[in-house]
Amino acid sequence: GQQLNQSPQSMFIQEGEDVSMNCTSSSIFNTWLWYKQDPGEGPVLLIALYKAGELTSNGRLTAQFGITRKDSFLNISASIPSDVGIYFCAGQGDAGGTSYGKLTFGQGTILTVHP
Amino acid sequence: GAVVSQHPSRVICKSGTSVKIECRSLDFQATTMFWYRQFPKKSLMLMATSNEGSKATYEQGVEKDKFLINHASLTLSTLTVTSAHPEDSSFYICSASNLVDPLDTQYFGPGTRLTVL
What we know:
- The complex is a heterodimer.
- Chain A is mostly beta strands.
- Helix content of chain A is about 0%, strand content about 55%.
- Chain A is built from no helices and 11 strands.
- In chain A, strands 2, 4, 5, 9, 10 and 11 form a 6-stranded mixed sheet that branches. A 5-stranded antiparallel sheet of chain A has the order 1-3-8-7-6, with no helix packed on it.
- In chain B, β7 and β8 (about 75-80) form a beta hairpin.
- Classes of the chains: A mainly beta, B mainly beta.
């Protein structure tokens, strides 16, 4: 089945530092998404990527969809304490295929920001 | 924006009882809802896809008789954990999407923490 490999598993950084995490897949995805999850809450969408090679920013967040549609990275610039949480990448399958609409999640990156 | 609610947020039950979890899309019609299960510090695992007015599609390894899903309206899907046991304790999260637009996004509920004693 489809799998997403997300790294690193965890990061401990100082406030103000930049953060980078990435995901790779053995399969091609039509859409790539990055979510953040706070403890005891559901994931919240940060950035959605629809086109191969697409580079998208959302405030201090920047994400890119790989040319091969098999990888993506997320960067967070100038981290702040509220960036703490678990970040997940997720791939969404092609329309009309057996995986239509379904999300496959990466293992998550636990981010800790020290003030 | 699209808001999805879940009820209850937490539930504790005795082994052998059944528990129903509701997932509602508050400001949009959800043709499809998804149910996920998440263990502590682990990723979300898709359990089933629920389409309004039809039977749910379960992922491999998920017992359909154990986890009953009903999607009776465009704003409500329910997950019933039947004859719950301690190993069913987990964080259950739903998401809702209007898949008329293929690029539409899944919006997640806040999750339900189930503890089976």
